[in-house]
Design goal:
This protein has 422 residues and is of the alpha+beta class. The chain folds into three domains: 2-22 and 186-264, no CATH class; 32-180, Mannose-6-phosphate receptor binding domain (Cation-dependent Mannose-6-phosphate Receptor, Chain A), CATH 2.70.130.10; 270-411, Mannose-6-phosphate receptor binding domain (Cation-dependent Mannose-6-phosphate Receptor, Chain A), CATH 2.70.130. Helix content is 17%, strand content 39%. The protein is built from eight helices and 27 strands. The chain has helices spanning 26-29, 37-46, 93-101, 203-216, 223-231, 267-279, 322-331, 403-406, and strands at 2-10, 13-21, 50-54, 59-63, 67-74, 82-90, 109-112, 115-118, 120-124, 129-130, 136-137, 139-146, 154-161, 164-171, 190-195, 251-252, 255-256, 258-260, 284-286, 292-296, 300-307, 311-319, 335-339, 345-354, 368-375, 385-392, 395-402. The strands form eight sheets. A five-stranded mixed sheet has the order 23-24-25-27-26. Strand 4 (59-63) and strand 5 (67-74) form a beta hairpin.
Length: 422
Amino acid sequence: MDLSAVIYFCRSYIFYCRSLFFFFLKDDMKEYSGPSPAELLEPLFKQSSCSYRIESYWTYEVCHGKHVRQYHEDKETGQKINIQEYYLGTMKKKDSDFLKLSVCSQVPTKNIEGQLTPYYPVEMGHGTQCSLRQNKPRFTTVLYVCHPEAKHEILTIAEVITCQYEVVVLTPLLCPHPKYRFKSSPVNDIFCQALGGSPLRPQSLSQLDREQEELLKPSFSSSSERDQRGSREDTPPVKEEAYTSTHKPLTVGGQAQVTVGTTHISRLTDEQLIKEFLSGSYCLHGGVGWWKYEFCYGKHVHQYHEDKEQGKNIVVVGSWNTEDHINWAKKNVARSYHLKDDGAQKVKVVSHFYGHGDVCDLTGKPRQVIVKLKCKESESPHAVTVYMLEPQTCQYVLGVESPVICKILDTADENGFLSIPS
C-alpha cells in the first residue's frame, strides 16, 4: 500500500487530501502448474468450430486451428450463387504440431479498448496469393483473448499492412491461466479532510452539485418540488440515496470525510435517455470496418463512411413511415416473446420496417431494412451493439442491442410500437 497526500487551498479554505493506492501482486506471484495456453485452446482447435463476423460486404470466417477466410456471396434470383473468396491464412499440419509445443514465457499484450490486454497468438500463413505483394501468400495472426462470458466470437479483424491481417477472438478457455486474465485498472479513492475551521465541503463543489442536480431534473419534477428545492438553496442538495457512490467515505479523527468517486446514472437520467431515444434525437451508432451504421428510432437507418479528405458518404438504408410499418406488421411478426421460468411471457425482440431508402443500383428499387431491437444487459447505458445483414440484395436486417431498449421492450403493442414505461 502506498499513501500520498496534498494540502489543497480553495478560496482561503484548507483541505488535507490523500489517496490510497493498493497493489495486489499475490495472484501474479503464485506459481502456475496447470495447462499451457495451447493446451487450454486445444479443445477449440480439435472440434470443427468456426466463428463468423458479418460486415456490409464481406463475411469473415475463422475456423479455429484451420483457416481464416474472407468471402462474399452474390445471390441472384433463380441463378447460381457466385462466391468471391480469399483465404487470409491456413494452418498446416506441421504448424499445428508446433503449436502444441510452443510456450510463451513473455506474454504479449495489446491495447484493446484502452486496456493493455494479454493474448495468445496463433499464426496462419499459406493464404491466397496477394497480387499487391508479388504474389506472396496472405498471412493472419489470430489473437486469443480471455473473456469469461465469450463464445469464441470475433471482436475485431483488421488489415494491419497489405495482405497481412490481425484477428482478435474472445474465448473463455484461456481464463484459467493467470497470465491471460484481464486485469482491470484500479480505482483509487481520494479522501479530503477540512482543516483550520474550513467547511466539510468546498462551497464551489456544493454549487457544482446543485447545478448538476438541476441539469438532471429538467422537466420531470413538479412545481411544488421545484419550490421545495428553492427553499433548500443554502444547504447541500446531494444525498447518498440519490447519488449512490461507488466508494464509501471513511471517518478519520471523528470527522466525516468527503469521498470523490463515480456516481451511478440516476433514474431521471434513465428516463431522459429513453425519452430522447423514442423521440429519435438520441441515435445509436455501431459497425466495424469500412461502413458504420446510424439508427434513429422512428426516423431512419443510415450506412456511412467518414473520410478525412472527402467527408462523410451516407447511404439511406431506410426511412420510417408509420403506415408502411403497420401494413408490414399485419403480415409479419413485429413482437416476439420468450417464456420465463415461471411461465410468464416476456418480449424478446421487437421488429420495425423502414423503407424508401436510396435506390439500389443492382435492383433499381429503394433499399429497405428490418430493424430488430433487443435488450443488452450492461452497466453502461451507452453500450450498444449494431450489426447489419443482407439476406437479399439491398434488403437488410439491422440488429440493435442496447440497455436503453431493456426497459421499454415490454411496452410494445401488437404493432411493435414502444412507449415510455409507466
